[in-house]
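Narrative of accomplishments. A recurring question from our advisory board has been how the design workflow behaves on a single, concrete structure rather than in aggregate. To address it, we present the structure tokens for one chain from the evaluation set, followed by the sequence designed for it. No filtering or post-editing was applied between the two.
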């Protein structure tokens, strides 16, 4: 139970009035609180708006840094940051535009120069060939993409890229980023589609002071930047005050006029422990460097715009947790996740290592060559030995990174290393279906062979890996709740792994696990609180306020906003005024986030859901249709709109909508399931069962779809078939309460009490 009276308040400016009216949010002055830092409300007078330029630092440009920081500027000029994006000209374009051609899926694209400009002729939105001027280069090594200007301020990233590697290793060629996917002009992955849009997908990490500036009413972008590439102020923040400090030598300007100081963790603070062979950080130093790097080097969505260097990451970004398909179930990289989520799992992060301990922050190269980077903290006399790496010296297997940072290719040619610095665990590979560095190289050997080699050399592995608990939660194992709860409660495990467990636990909610989540809600671990907020809408409504209301008072804006959205259906007038106002403030941020991202179907559907929760079905319908128009493949928009029609008794429109979605959307199982339910409501049971069967047998099915199909069979007097469906479903979802309840119920009704008792025992054992 939270003590609302203990919270301090602070004044905040209300958000757009028309949205408040639409969502039923109080338009008055909002009073917020902070549960952690006990910060007193500011006492300074409010300055007039026309004085803001004197108060806030402004972006000055990298050219203003050159004269004083020549060494750093010289290193940066050659870096991937400096070359992240540029206007297409003779200096920046690396690809062959000398009448070159490339054929993919029957379409031959041509690359050529004309009048000093660069052009491509390729297929566009309607499948026809069209000539496009190249507007910008995008990246430099090992590949370079090209951006094409579309109407409405859109920049689209061409999927045919230039391989900039040396010809001797297969480079100096045009290639397609999806060589085996058969991407046609109707595909969401086509270069002209929404999923290859630079303004949303790429922009804020490739330019400095990027402002997306999307206008929902006109469906246009007015995207701007201070500098076209990743320049000094991307990492150091706006420099105008620093220039003032440099000119006037004003000692009273904190951090030399910057909003933050990027203090590198000095090597002199690391002391070698001779016995373990591993250096320890002898001086605890709070570093904002990782928070700054993570803004781009992470798999995340930009939740709230306006992030600058040094801002709290969770005030602006909503990071992905360790869930498939982004990660393997043990946290190893699978899809492109951009380092941060991996690094948070590592012992390096836990020990205080930060990015610049290994990477030069200006030139971006490693600070030393080869294993010398690792030798900064890991004594070569102990680790650079065959007794440790088990390979001949100077062989690839002797290199630290090949065992502890295995690489994977992305975008066909871009090799990136896993930054979780993990110990290979071939003993887990068969158990939870994960790769390991040993058999990835020794492809003729088995996981068991590799596990035995490591066991003989180093003894048995450490305690159970967190991947086992996450696998239990993802697969619906009988002991999932127990394993997830144990992982969440273990502070020695990486916070991102524990947070992932938090996000999975609502599937297995009991009194005990609900109490654990309540402790998380009232605790002081930001990633765990975020994970709870991300999954709060899966918590039963009757207990959701007990978990969600404390999250409204979290320090991080993203967590507060997600919690407010999950509480939208809860009447707030029964709670203290301070809770109501904090909810209102957090909901404002959530609405601002969805409007900021309203170029995407996900946000449009979310805005539709907000309007529906507030009883504005006309606006909800309009937003759902807008989402469908924006992305015809996006299944949730169809499902949500169909459910709105169902609630209004518009069943024929439900059927028509869902049938149209079958030929347009991805992830058809949800569409098939919903269409089957609609046909049942229309008493067309035989036809309904055909779609329910398709949903139950789909690769992306759920225990719910299997249960519903089985109940439909049982209702049609086909109990034998229903039981077979449920039993097969239980093999896939062994902890599914619905499937177990279905088996118990049907066995009872058919007189098989012994079987019913068996499943009752299993159900009881789950809790």
């Amino acid at each position: 139970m939270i003590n609302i009276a203990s919270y301090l308040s602070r004044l905040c400016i209300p958000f757009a009035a028309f949205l408040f009216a639409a969502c039923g949010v109080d338009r008055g002055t909002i009073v917020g609180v902070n549960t952690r830092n006990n910060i007193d409300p500011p006492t300074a007078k409010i300055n007039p708006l026309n004085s803001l330029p004197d108060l806030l630092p402004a972006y000055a440009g990298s050219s203003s840094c050159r004269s004083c920081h020549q060494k750093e500027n010289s290193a940066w000029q050659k870096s991937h940051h400096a070359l992240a994006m540029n206007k297409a000209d003779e200096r920046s374009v690396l690809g062959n535009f000398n009448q070159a051609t490339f054929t993919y899926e029957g379409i031959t694209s041509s690359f050529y120069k004309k009048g000093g400009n660069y052009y491509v002729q390729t297929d566009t939105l309607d499948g026809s060939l069209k000539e496009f001027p190249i507007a910008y280069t995008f990246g430099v090594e090992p590949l370079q993409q090209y951006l094409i200007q579309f109407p409405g301020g859109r920049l689209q990233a061409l999927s045919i890229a230039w391989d900039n590697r040396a010809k001797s290793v297969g480079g100096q060629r045009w290639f397609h980023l999806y060589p085996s996917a058969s991407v046609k002009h109707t595909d969401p992955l086509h270069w002209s589609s929404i999923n290859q849009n630079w303004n949303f997908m790429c922009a804020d990490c490739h330019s400095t002071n990027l402002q997306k500036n999307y206008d929902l009413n006109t469906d246009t972008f007015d995207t701007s930047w201070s500098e076209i590439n990743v320049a000094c102020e991307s990492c150091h923040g706006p420099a105008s005050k620093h220039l003032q400090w440099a000119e006037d030598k004003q000692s009273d300007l904190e951090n030399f006029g910057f909003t933050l100081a990027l203090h590198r963790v000095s090597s002199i603070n690391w002391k070698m422990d001779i016995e373990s062979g591993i250096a320890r950080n002898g001086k605890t130093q709070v570093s904002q460097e990782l928070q700054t790097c993570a803004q781009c080097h992470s798999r995340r969505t930009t939740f709230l715009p306006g992030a600058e260097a040094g801002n709290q990451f969770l005030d602006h970004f909503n990071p992905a947790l360790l869930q498939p398909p982004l990660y393997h179930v043990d946290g190893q990289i699978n899809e492109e996740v951009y380092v941060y989520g991996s690094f948070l799992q590592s012992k390096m992060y836990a020990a205080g290592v930060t990015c610049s301990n290994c990477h030069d922050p200006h030139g971006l190269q490693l600070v030393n060559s080869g294993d010398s980077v690792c030798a900064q903290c890991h004594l070569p006399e102990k680790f650079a030995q065959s007794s440790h790496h088990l390979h001949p010296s100077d062989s690839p297997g002797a290199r630290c990174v090949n065992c502890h940072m295995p690489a994977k290719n992305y975008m066909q040619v871009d090799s990136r290393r896993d930054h979780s610095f993990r110990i290979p665990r071939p003993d887990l590979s068969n158990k939870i279906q994960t790769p390991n560095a040993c058999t990835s190289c020794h492809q003729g050997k088995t996981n068991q062979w590799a596990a035995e080699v490591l066991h003989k050399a180093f003894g048995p592995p450490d305690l159970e890996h967190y991947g086992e608990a996450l696998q239990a939660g993802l697969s619906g194992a009988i002991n999932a709740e127990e394993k997830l709860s144990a992982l969440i409660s273990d502070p020695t495990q990486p916070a991102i792994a524990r947070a992932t467990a938090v996000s999975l636990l609502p599937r297995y909610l009991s009194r005990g696990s609900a109490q654990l989540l309540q402790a998380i809600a009232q605790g002081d671990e930001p990633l765990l609180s975020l994970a709870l907020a991300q999954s709060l809408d899966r918590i039963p409504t009757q207990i959701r306020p007990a978990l969600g209301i404390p999250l409204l008072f979290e320090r991080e804006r993203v967590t507060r906003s997600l919690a407010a959205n999950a509480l939208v259906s809860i009447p707030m007038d029964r709670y203290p005024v301070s809770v109501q106002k904090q909810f209102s403030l957090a909901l404002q941020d959530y609405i601002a986030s969805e409007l900021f991202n309203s170029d995407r179907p996900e946000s449009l559907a979310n805005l539709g859901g907000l309007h529906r929760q507030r009883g504005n079905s006309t606006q909800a319908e309009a937003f759902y249709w807008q989402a469908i128009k924006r992305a015809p493949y996006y299944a949730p928009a169809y499902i949500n709109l169909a459910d709105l029609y169902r609630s209004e008794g518009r069943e024929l429109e439900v059927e028509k909508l869902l049938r149209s979605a079958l030929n347009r959307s991805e992830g058809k199982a949800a569409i098939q399931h919903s269409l089957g339910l609609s046909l049942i409501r229309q008493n067309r049971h035989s036809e309904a069962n055909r779609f329910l069967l398709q949903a139950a047998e789909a690769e992306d099915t759920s225990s719910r779809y299997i249960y519903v199909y089985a109940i439909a069979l049982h209702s049609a007097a086909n109990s034998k078939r229903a039981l077979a469906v449920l039993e097969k479903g239980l093999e896939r979802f062994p902890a599914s309460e619905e499937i177990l309840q279905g088996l118990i119920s049907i066995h009872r009704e058919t007189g098989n009490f012994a079987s019913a008792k068996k499943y009752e025992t299993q159900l009881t054992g789950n809790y």
